[in-house]
Amino acid sequence: MTVAAGFIARIRECVKYVRSSQGRQEKFESALLQMKLPIRYVSIDVDNRWNSTYLMLKSAIELRQGFMRLADLDNSFKCLPNSEEWEQGIVICKCLEVFYDITKKFSGVKYPTTNMYFLSVFQINFNIQTWERSTHSYIREMAKEMRKKFDKYWSTSNLLMSIGMVLDPRYKARLVEFTYKKLYGEMLCRSKMEVFREELDTLFSAYESSSGFVPDYFINSSTSRTQSSNHENTQAPSKYEIQLEFKEYMMQDCVVDIHKSELQKYLDEPLLEEASESTFSDGGRVLTTHRSSLAPEAVQALLCLNDWLPDLIDDDNEQA
Known about the structure:
mainly alpha
C-alpha cells in the first residue's frame, strides 16, 4: 500500500475530514440528501491494512457526488480530489477488490477445499501479470511490489497445491496444466509440468511402497495430452471467458497408452463431468444456519459430499 498511498491521499483526506467532527458529518449527510444518495458513514482506513483501504475507497467512490456537493456547502472543505485523482482511486480500488473477494472465500464463514484455494491463488497470479502490463505507471509499480511477495509464497506452495488438485477426479492434472499454460506460456509450462509429474510420481511411489495397495479408482484407461490456447493477452479475461476457455480445453481429444503406471492411468482417465462455471465459483459454500452449529468434521463431510455428489444434494432442503 506504500506505492498507492500518494495516489489516494486526497480521497483519504476527504474521509478523514468528514469523520473528524459531528458538524462536518451532518453537513455531509445534508449533501448526500441533496444528491439523493444513501446516508451512511464512509470508512476510515488504516494505512498498512489493504482491506480497510479497499473499504474506504469503495465507500468514498460510491458517495463521491456527495463530496462534490459538500465542497459547495462547506467553505472549509479544501481537499476535494480532482477527476484524475478520483480515477486513480477507482483503478486502485478495482485491483484491491480482487484480493478482497478472494480473501472472503477463506474467511470464517466460507471453507474452500484445496481446488478452490488453488484456483483463487491462480486468479491472483494471473491478475498480477495483467497489472504488470497496465498503462498506468502506479499500477505497474504496485504490481512489481506484489510480485516480489507473491513469488516468494508461490515458489514454496504451488507444487503442493498442484498435487492436491490431482486428488479431485473432476480436474486431476488437466487443470494444473491449464493454469500453468495461462501463467507461463507453452514452453515454460512443459518444464514446470515435468517437475510436477516427477514429484507426483515420487509421491505415488512412496505411497505404493508403504501401503502395498492400489485403490480400484486408480485403475482405468484413457489419457490427456493437450495443446494450449494462446497465452499472449494484454488484458486479463473475465471469469466467464476463463470458464469457456477451460471448458474447451477439457474437451480436447485423448490418446490411449497401455504402457502407463496406475498413477498415469488415473490422471489420464476421463474426468467426472461438472458444470464449467462451478470450477471458478465458490457458490454453495456459505454455511447455512443449520451447518453453523455442526462439528468441524461434519462441516467438512458436507462440503466434500457437495463436491462429489452434487446431484444428490438439495441445499434448500438440507437437514442438519
